[in-house]
Structure formats: structure tokens, C-alpha cells
Amino acid sequence: MDHGSNMQGGPAPADARDPNAYSNGLTLESGPYVLPGPRQLRFSDEHAFGSVLLDRLERVDTKNGNATAYDALAWFGGTYDRLVLKAEGNVTKGKLEEARTEVLWGHAIASYWDAQLGGRQDSGTGPDRTWLAFGIQGLAPYWFNVNATAYVGSSGRTALRLSSEYELLLTQRLILQPRAEVNLYGRRDEARGLGSGLSDAAVGLRLRYEFSRQFAPYVGVEWAGRFGQTADFVHTEGQRAREARYVAGLRFWF
């Protein structure tokens, strides 16, 4: 069906009704009924909001050993512009093995989609790495959450991270969440045990029960693999390049 000129957006037609006509031209900032002092009435897109989501705080059990993993997201801002903080990593035997922290500026570019620009800091085992980050994050058709970010680092290093997840409501409280993540690197980084090309990928299922929307424990299973030169580095250390992980954790937000 062709909706033609009935679609929203674009310039208003020449005979469009004046949006202030219903109030005889009075606005929130002019006219005899304006309250003294700063304007008190504001639209929702004029307010700043914030949220913190700990998407995954979990204990991971593998044949290579046990670890604690975290994946958190926080943001503050309005409808169109936000400050975004992302943090992900794992701790093994009290030692931070891998950590990725990103500070980004997010700007709405379309309904359900944000462009993000900022920096990423890698820490943990091996030397720290700093990257310039640019990506998009949003809700794809059929309710898939998608995150795609490209990185540029020093010495010509480049990287690409892709992730997606979906929430399948078995009941109003019991939710099954498939999730997939892929990491690629443009060049070899032996100091951090990373090869060029496809470095690692993970596909998992997590089943959570929401006692409330803000608090939900979960259990799950995840298949993770290292590939190419990255797998060679893992084998050199005497570990498995591919493994099944059993997880139990907590998801909460406020």
C-alpha cells in the first residue's frame, strides 16, 4: 500500500494549521499567563533521565576453570543525546583477566536506533589498549536488540564487535534469552593473545525468572570458541579453544 504524502515527516503543507492557534498564540514562555521565574512546565524530551543495568553478573563453570563475569550498561541524558557507559569483563581466581570499558556519546538517528561515538579501554591480562569507538545500537525488526561497534587503535589496530539478543516471553515472568557475540581484529596482537580475523564468538541461552522487572536471577548455557591465531595462543597456554560454559547469575536494573 502506498501511503504517499500521508506519511509523517518533511515540511508542513502551506495551509497547515498554526500549532499555537488553539491558544491564541500564547506559549509557555510568552503571554499574560506565564508564571514568573524559570519555566516550570516542560515536555518529556526536555528532561534528563538515567538508568543502570547490570545485564549479566554471573558465575561461569567451564573445564578450564571457574570465573565471575559481568556486563553492565549505564546512561544519562535526554531523548536524543545521552552519555553511555559500558563495562564488560571477567575475574578468575581474584584476578581481572579481561575487561572492556567504553565511554560513549549516543545520539538518536532514527526510531529505536542510536549512533554512538567515544572511546574504549581494554585492561586485564597483557598491556592496556585504547581505542576510538563508533557504532550503532538499537532494536531491529522482530524485536532483536543489535549492537555493532567498530574500533580504531594505535599502531593501525582495528576491531569490530557484533552482538545481538532476543527476549522470548514463555510467561510474564519466565523469559528465555538467546544471545550471540562475535569479535574480529584487523591485526595480530600477541601481547594480548589476539590473532587477526575472527578472534572469538559466543552463543548462549539464559533462562531468567523476574520476581520484578528490576530483579531476575537466571541460569544458562553458552558455547564459546576461539579461532585462527587466537586459538593457537590458547592452545599454547594449555587450554581449550572451544568450550561449553554453564552459568548462573543475576540481572537487575534501576
CATH class: Mainly Beta
Uncertain stretches of 5 or more adjacent residues = 1-7
Largest sheet: 12 strands, antiparallel, barrel
Strand content: over 45%
Rounded mean pLDDT score: 90
Structurally, how many domains make up the residues?
1
Task: Please state the second-level CATH architecture.
Answer: Beta Barrel
SSE pattern: EEEEEEEEEEEEHE
Number of strand segments: 13
Strand order of the largest sheet: 1-2-3-4-5-6-7-8-10-11-12-13
- How would the global form be characterised? elongated
Q: Which oligomeric state applies? A: single chain
Radius of gyration: 23 Å
Task: Work out the helix count.
Answer: 1
What does this structure look like?
By secondary structure, the protein is mainly β. It has one domain: Porin (Beta Barrel). The chain has one helix spanning 228-236; strands spanning 49-62, 65-77, 81-92, 95-110, 113-124, 129-140, 144-153, 158-165, 168-169, 174-185, 197-209, 215-226, 242-253. A hairpin with a 2-residue loop joins strand 1 and strand 2 (65-77). The longest helix has 9 residues, at 228-236. The protein is elongated and about 80 Å long. The two termini are 42 Å apart.
Note the main attributes of this structure.
elongated; disordered N terminus; 12-stranded antiparallel barrel; 4% helix; 254 residues; Porin; 1 helix; 13 strands; mainly beta
